[in-house]
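User: Sequence for DUF3662 domain-containing protein below. Tokens please.
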Amino acid sequence: MGILDNFEKGLERAVNGAFAKTFRSGLQPVEISSALKRELDTKAAVVSRDRILAPNSFRVLLAPADYERMTGIGPTLVDDLNQIVQQHAAQQGFQFAGGVAIELVDDPKLTTGVIQIDSANVQSEVSWMPVLDVAGRRHPITKARTVVGRGSDADITIDDTGTSRKHVEILWDGQHAQARDLGSTNGSQLNGRPFQRANLDPDSVIQIGRTTIVFRIVPQTAPGGRGPSAPGANAPRSAPRSAPNGGTPDAGGFWR
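Assistant: Structure tokens for DUF3662 domain-containing protein:
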């Protein structure tokens, strides 16, 4: 489940454009999701009998204090907001001109607790990027081999004395991902189970020391292209979740 699932059962107060919060605890993610859904409902336009077009590009303007709190949650927040927008559009029968893009923007002109949504219809095409979410930071996987550890020579360096200098590596061939423990002192776990070498599915969780690493495949939108295919149609597929040592490599070069 995404981080907004629990919030979705609560607040549903929103108006188009901007609204003031009424909770002393501060702005909550569900207030942003409510504003985005209301923006979809308000801006959706009937193009033809079978086509209702809704905006797919959103700038969420926040006061500096709220922006700092929301971005402090990490990139998962935008992932969940993106999913909520797509789910709401599907429920309402809305269609998009391209992939959904959501950006949180720091706007010093706004007062704390006020949200403003700027939206537009933007033609775009969707590509899919593998990433590692580590300690609230997102690291795109751009190489065939990405090493994670506490050493300065690791591709992703983490501040965790419970990990080895080169603890684990992520292998990526453009379609499939695999994790391999590099002979670490304290070992590694994948989805709660120790492993030496294993294939990765999206949202797989790797634990090394006190550090949690989440492997994800996230959509990237580029303006000017054709609309996207059905969700996930062009997304890279990962190999089966686990692979014991000494297994037989599949067509993608990973172990079954």
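Helices lie at 29-43, 64-72, 76-92.
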